[in-house]
Design a protein that fits this description.
The protein is α/β, with parallel strands linked by helices. It folds into two domains: about 15-85, no CATH class; about 95-335, Aldolase class I (TIM Barrel, Alpha-Beta Barrel), CATH 3.20.20.70. It contains 13 helices and ten strands. It has a ten-stranded mixed β-sheet with strand order 1-2-3-4-5-6-7-8-9-10. Helix 12 (about 265-275) crosses helix 13. The protein is globular. It binds iron/sulfur cluster. Iron/sulfur cluster binds near residues 123 and 130.
Length: about 350
């Protein structure tokens, strides 16, 4: 079948807010833009009804047109396999809801708490462990932050706060600045950690104002980005990550091991090499969290261990991420060893 010529839509303005607002949210439009035959993704519209597709144009620009197996496309494209029920795959795979202490505040592990600051993300990753998270009841609107702040105040053993979501960098600078200022005023907090995929997805969001905000606080700032493939880290991503690093912000990366995306040793090696070029240390490589709809991304543990053996033989130790699994109710993520 002859495919129509790819149509690249023009974004009316280039601010990061505009880029988020003009993300592609229709699977057939995404395929049309990329010049991919829709028959390669049957029932994608139905799968998308269960979890909306969302791809900003800065991410779209890194997907190879015409390639239905592109590793970036597979992370974001709605897929009929998502609708096949799988035993053990649930809506709350890592026990988030049992860890809620006040709306939007999760306290799972000693010494740190996590704030679900927003439901919004710049991109919707099909394997996301929070794809079914009940954001409507855990929505951390302004009034909820007070309960979260009170909780942290009354727990002097908590020395680190993780801003998560959704993606915390979806929030405006003003909202972020207000929340961070409140946290910075709590004397026993030593570290602010931000978990964000945005530097990899909409790098323009990492503005000078944002960098100054993160670099100008009393707490030590750390950002854990989320890249799964070296192809995600182009020139713009390199530039903003270097800027963050130069501002003194510790940069780490967490990835998810995903079938057909990054389940080859050379792909993982290339990712580590590219991360280091960008000023980022590989931190975690997660085995897939068993979230309903993501079974087709699973890489069996024995395969993962064999892959890691090859990766370890190819890289210096500081570029080898730790293979981990998170299990609901445990007191930390657990390293996965073997072979
Ligand atoms: S950016 Fe993070 S929270 Fe948002 S959909 Fe992707 S994995 Fe989930």
């Amino acid at each position: 079948m002859k495919m129509p010529k790819p149509v690249i839509p023009v974004t009316p303005a280039s601010s990061w807010q505009s880029q988020l607002a003009h993300a592609v949210t229709d699977p057939l439009q995404l395929l049309q833009i990329l010049g991919i035959d829709p028959s390669r993704f049957p029932q994608c519209q139905l799968a998308h009804q269960g979890f909306q597709l969302k791809v900003p144009q800065s991410y779209l620009a890194k997907i190879r047109p015409g390639d239905p197996k592109d590793p970036l496309l597979l992370q974001v494209m709605a897929n009929a396999q998502e609708m096949t029920p799988a035993e053990g795959y649930t809506h709350d795979p890592v026990g988030d809801l049992d860890a809620v202490r006040t709306p939007g505040l999760l306290h799972k592990y000693a010494g740190r708490v996590l704030l679900v600051t927003t439901s919004a993300c710049a991109v919707h990753c099909r394997y996301c462990f929070r794809r079914h998270f009940p954001y409507e009841t855990q929505q951390p609107a302004r009034q909820h932050w007070q309960a979260a702040l009170d909780y942290i105040q009354s727990h002097p053993d908590v020395t680190e706060v993780i801003l998560s979501g959704g993606d915390p960098l979806s929030l405006s600078d003003q909202k972020l600045a207000e929340l961070i200022a409140e946290l910075d005023n709590i004397p026993h907090l030593k570290r602010l950690r931000i978990h964000s995929r945005i530097p990899v997805v909409v790098p323009d969001r990492v503005t000078r104002d944002l960098i100054n905000l993160l670099a100008g606080i009393r707490m030590q700032s750390c950002m854990v980005i989320h890249a799964n493939h070296a192809q995600e880290l182009g020139v713009a991503e390199y530039r903003v990550l270097q800027q963050l690093k130069q501002a003194g912000i510790m940069l780490l990366n967490q990835s998810v091991l995903l079938k057909a995306v990054n389940d080859r040793a050379d792909t993982l090696v290339a990712l580590s090499e590219r991360l280091y070029e960008c000023g980022v240390l590989p931190y975690y490589l997660h085995l897939l969290d068993p979230v309903a709809g993501a079974r087709h991304f699973d890489v069996p543990q024995t395969e993962a261990l064999a892959l890691m053996n090859t990766v370890r033989a190819s890289l210096p130790g500081y570029l080898v991420p730790q293979l981990v699994r998170e299990t609901a109710g445990e007191n930390s993520k657990k390293p996965v060893f073997g072979l």
